[in-house]
Amino acid sequence: MAFKFHAVTLPIAIVLASLYFYWITQKQTTKKEKVLKDMGVVVTQKAASCHLQAKTGDILHLHYSGYLKSNGKLYESTRENKEPYVFKLGTCNEKDRPECLKGFEKGVTGMCAGEKRKVTVPPKLGFGKAGRKPDVPPDDTLIFNIELVDIDSF
Q: Torsions phi, psi of 42, nearest 5?
């Protein structure tokens, strides 16, 4: 028995193939991608010139203010200090410092000296379920206003 070709089968096959392709590419996201979607990085002021971007291993000089998203309360800031906060990107020296937060680290990576960013850090990339007593309650989103003053790259 010979199969007959119907003119309607080609458009139906194209539509079904398109729907399958859409489902494969759009519907399947990993948990890591979902957490990074929750993280927000907004450049509030671009640097005048950007010859060097912050990367792992660089020593960063920056000012930051950390707020709680739940109530808008300032829980930590370096603005009152005359000197900026200095740390090596990618290292964690003291557990409760911002450089130990994955979200903070991802937020400053790629910054240029003179740039300002607002970084929203979800709980999974912040202090998580434990929080940081007494300032940060468990499972709270953090908002950092960051100004990168200088980069020492080796």
A: -120, 125
pTM: 0.72
Nearest to 118 by CA among 145, 154, 91, 98: 145
* The three-state (H, E, C) secondary structure of 94-138, written as one string: CCCCHHHCHHHHHHHCCCECCCEEEEEECHHHCCCCCCECCCECC
* Residue 12, helix vs strand vs coil: helix
Give me the residues paired with residue 45 across strands. 116
Task: For 141, list phi and psi in degrees, rounded to 5.
Answer: -80, 140
pLDDT digits (tens, 9 = 90+) for 76-91: 999 998 899 999 998 8
Spatial contact of 124 and 36, defined as CB atoms under 8 Å apart: no
**Total residues found in the chain within this entry:** 154
For residue 19, CA distances in Å to 12, 14, 27 come to 11, 9, 11
Any idea which residue has 């203010």 for tokens? 65
Q: Token digits for 92?
A: 């964690």
Whole-number Å distance between alpha carbons of 104 and 102 = 6
- Residue 25's beta-bridge partner residues? none
Note the pLDDT tens digit of each residue in 116-145.
999 999 999 888 898 888 889 999 999 999
